[in-house]
Fold this sequence. Notes:
The complex is a heterodimer of chains A (521) and B (456). Chain A has 521 residues and is mainly β.
Amino acid sequence: MAKFIFLLVIAGLMTANSPEVAHSEVSFLDRSSAIPIHQSYEGDWNHFVGGGVAAFDCNDDGFPDLYVAGGSAPSRLFINTSTRGGPITFKQGEIESLTDVIGAYPMDIDGDGILDLVVLRDGGNVVFKGLGGCKFVRAPSDWRFTEGNEWTTSFSATFEKGENWPTFAIGNYVNEKDPNGPFEACDHNYLIRPKGRAFGERIPLDPGFCALSMLFSDWKRVGTPDLRISNDRQYYVSKGREQMWRLNPLHEYTEAEGWPTLHIWGMGIASRDLNGDGLPEIVLTSMADQLLQINLGGGKMKAAPYSMGAYATTPYKGDDGRPSTGWHAEFGDIDNDGRDDLFIAKGNVDQMPSNAIHDPNNLLMQQPDGTFVEKGGVAGIGTTERSRGAAVTDLNLDGKLDIVVVNRRAQMEVWQNSTEPSGHYISVDLREPGANSHAVGAIAEVRLPDGRILTQEHTVGGGHASGDAGPLHFGLGAAASVEIRVTWPWGKPSDWTRIAADHAVRISPGNGSALTVETKE
Amino acid sequence: MLRKLSLAATALCALGLAFGLSHGVPRADEARPANLPAPLTDADFPAHPMAEVELGRQLFWDKIISGNKNIACATCHHPRFGTSDGLSLGMGEGGIGLGPDRKPDPKDYPEQRIPRNAPALWNTGARGFTVLFDDGRIEVDHTRPSGFRTPLEDEMVKGFASLLSAQTMFPVLANDEMAGHYHESDVSALVRQGRLTGPGGAWSVIAKRVADIPQYKSQFEAVYPEIAAGRPVAFSDISNAIAAYMTFDFRSDTSPFDAYLRHQGALSASAQKGMDVFFGKGQCSTCHSGPLFSDMKFHAMGDPQIGPGKAERFELHQMDKGRMRVSNDPKDAFAFRTPSLRNVTLTAPYGHAGAYRDLSDYLKQHIHPGSGLKDYNISSAVLPDMKVGKPDYNPAENGANYAAIENAVSAKPVDLTDQELEELKSFLKSLEDPVAVSGGRMTIPETVPSGLSIDR
């Protein structure tokens, strides 16, 4: 068990007068050999998509552990054995062996404070109940989870108002049993709402358009999440679209409500406020252009200009000029300069001659003017395997975000962030009493000394078949202390509370609108 | 019908024509341009047993290798149109009829035009033809372990015998060219899914289709000993046979200019003057060099871009960045491989997108690279009526991006008089091979083993 020290929070004690962080070139060390076994996402056509990784601390030691999809090959649990600031290392853990795993998302389902694991499969999903110590058992039957028998490729979860059990969204791909498939044969998606302290019946979210990523997010910042679904036009072909669902009453947004029809080869969702207005921008991975949409507020999104530099349309290195294929996307402040950067996993579907065969992964570093500059080649992480899922999280608790990548038909990769100098940071683990122990749906805001506000929403979902339950990581640049406030799920914003930089903190609701901040040692 | 001659008669006729045109006194050597290429010889072409050539001939003309069994290689590479199709941009799968008469099949409507002009096949089997397609995506590349570059890179199957054979493996995988769309057939579905190689892949499905026809099976066994010994027919066997056929049938080195090179004939006075322009003032031979009239390199010559562009369905633009889409090198933007000029008078329209139906019009803007962009008129193209999703002519930045095409041009303009242009055309006419005019060295098969109809 980790130790906690109550931190006396005194506003104004910490000052923010350290100089601006010197410009640093981002760099990584290849720690792929830390994975003690050949771990590759394998299989035929039903594993062209998927290949996710769940990053989550399953033994409460603060170090994120990994559950990695193997497709037709074994999926495995890797327990993080790194020491703080040391080289990243893993040992293999024990978990029930499953085949045809597509991906996985960690979350605490039953409110016992221990993270459980939702495993997406081709042919029936599995929920593991976490027991602590990285031990798992199948979810008890009284959770009444419907495993289904579809080809599940996406997932998101939220806690609806007043509920003591999560709501799941299950996104399915092609209906393999449809004799007229595989084109124009997308399966149903489902919403599974709670029934007391268990799951209720599956509610179809029709029509389904071959969902490869789903995300519950309060994208309008109105206090109520909607469900975004990113769909693969490769299989819905023409009569589909990107979707947004309202939960109450349950229905899909229409053009009349201002939700424009958009067709992409959607594979992954990343969500993060980039311009400081509190509204999350969205990256939707696809083929060729990786679509970055700016959130204008009021439920309106607008495609970012190409000059923002984040479209990553074609490989930035190598001698293959065909369009890229994007999969997992995740924001994170790689150099802790107070600006979120963007990692995109890339790779050919398998043998698509239309797209680059050697397609390097992207690391798009956000600049002070809000544009993005490609550094994947410089940082060394721009490998050209068929990458799929990924996680951007601090694996050795040195305050710098590391990167895990799962590859189809190739060994997975682990990249230890070695960027020097790096700015200050704060790592925030949100907790609240009750069923939603990890405060899914909470919004954490960090106010920098210059008044800029960094906003992160604690979501479960998105990416490509990959769930990251790591703490919220804020790069702070030169700030040695910052103020933080949290809007708890279905609650109001807390008071601004000053905390020192360069710590991992666990934050929970305090008295009234205060926060309780514990520093992890 | 052009192709009535038997194989033997064709060869004899070619020989006779070559000599028949050789009237007049051969030009004195000292008056010849110093940079004339050497004549093509047998050593420039791989030799194949006639049984293999014959097998390839049947496959070239047989629609069995297309997804919907409705289009053969010959449909868009037809001897009546100089082994091309007479169109600026072809209509592949879903078209009916040949050449300018080709029309969309209302029951199987094509989704878009083919983005580039169908290349002529003359001498593509020659050893010197080291770069295939306008962008060279199939090429000899000694930096790669296999010695070749193909779109599948490390995934490319083994067993193809030549560059031309490797090239022949790809049109059958293109949905718009030969494979068809979505779930129209087993092949088209596999192609769209990206399942190409291996036991269940598109190539093996086509190969099985062919091998299941006894008349093909026995020919493959007769031609390839490994197949006689029990190895299943692979798609690379099909492509090897087709390549052998194309190498033989579309060898073209008996034009008046070839006779001239061999000191066996003379050129007309006008063609001789044109030759001087070509190898001299016009600087044509800087790029159109060697016996194949190509340096096998890439040049941004500012040809107008029309049609859908080299853009996949998930791309919005209508650009064709040419070599850059292969090499990923910005220096290669809008650059295309120098085309061979043999039988150029038979292969209209001209340019990588076929923007010009008329050779004179093409040449006028070609000597001033990029000059045709400003006032380009789409009526210069030969495009059959067809509903298209993107406009055929769209010079805007988010379309074909004519400004960028013009900006990429680095070749210097050359000034030629109208008379010199006419002489240049006379010279190009001297590259026209009577064998090619008559449709090649072989005839169109009467039937093919699948029993499917033949596009004559």
